[in-house]
Amino acid sequence: MQLQRLLSYTRKAADEYSMIQEGDHIAVGISGGKDSLTLLYALHGLKRFYPRKFDLSAVTVDLGFADFNLEPIQNLCRELEVPYKIVKSDIYDILFNVRQESNPCSLCAKMRKGALNEAVKEMGCNKVAYAHHKDDIIETMLLSLIFEGRFYSFSPKTYLDRMDLTVIRPMMFIDEMEVIGFRNKYSLPVVKGKCPVDGHTKRQYAKELLRELNKEHPGTKERMFHAILTGDIKGWPQRTISRR
């Protein structure tokens, strides 16, 4: 995927769900993976020409994995002139050594988001951007249907009243394969922690299920995404269709 295409999709999301307002200070949550680094490039590029001016920062919550070297991301942020903060945490130690969780994903996500949001507020940001793409949104819907019995997926924009912080997901219209293509084309400095349960989660199950469904019935993924966009899911903001 070319940078121009990435920026077009990002602007589409920002416009149709009013994600960015004049004077916003947006923090990008950087995990070190391909998705969050692609989002950093997207918002950095969008900042140059978007009609509503906004500031951009980046933050990583270090979970405490061994050999998690963030220097390549520090160098990238310096190159892009984006302020970057690293938040040290003991999340890995708490989950795997203290509590010895057999299914740590939910608690890990909760602790990580809590630490991230606290850091974002300390940085003076009023919005935080998560790097969820189209596949993530559809997989979340499948997980909700299968394990909760409800039609749901996370919203493009969510206001956290307890934190006075807005979460936005500017990559919602981008396929994961396009993110992979962007990572390869632009040689993104991906840095990933070695989670012991990576590849053995319900999320991975949903990813493989979606892949098989779309393989057997081409177009399934797009039809599912359309159903989500038009499904009047509780908590989703009103969508403004772009006429550009």
TrEMBL record:
One of its GO terms (molecular function) is transferase activity. Keywords: Transferase. The keyword Zinc-finger does not apply. One of its GO terms (biological process) is tRNA processing. It comes from the Bacteria. The keyword Transferase applies. Pfam families: ATP_bind_3 (PF01171). Residues 26-190 form the tRNA(Ile)-lysidine/2-thiocytidine synthase N-terminal domain. InterPro entries: Rossmann-like_a/b/a_fold, TilS/TtcA_N, tRNA_thiolation_TtcA_Ctu1. Transmembrane segments: none annotated. PANTHER family: AMINOTRAN_5 DOMAIN-CONTAINING PROTEIN (PTHR43686:SF1), SULFURTRANSFERASE-RELATED (PTHR43686). This is tRNA(Ile)-lysidine/2-thiocytidine synthase N-terminal domain-containing protein. The lineage of its organism: Bacteria, Bacillati, Bacillota, Clostridia, Lachnospirales.
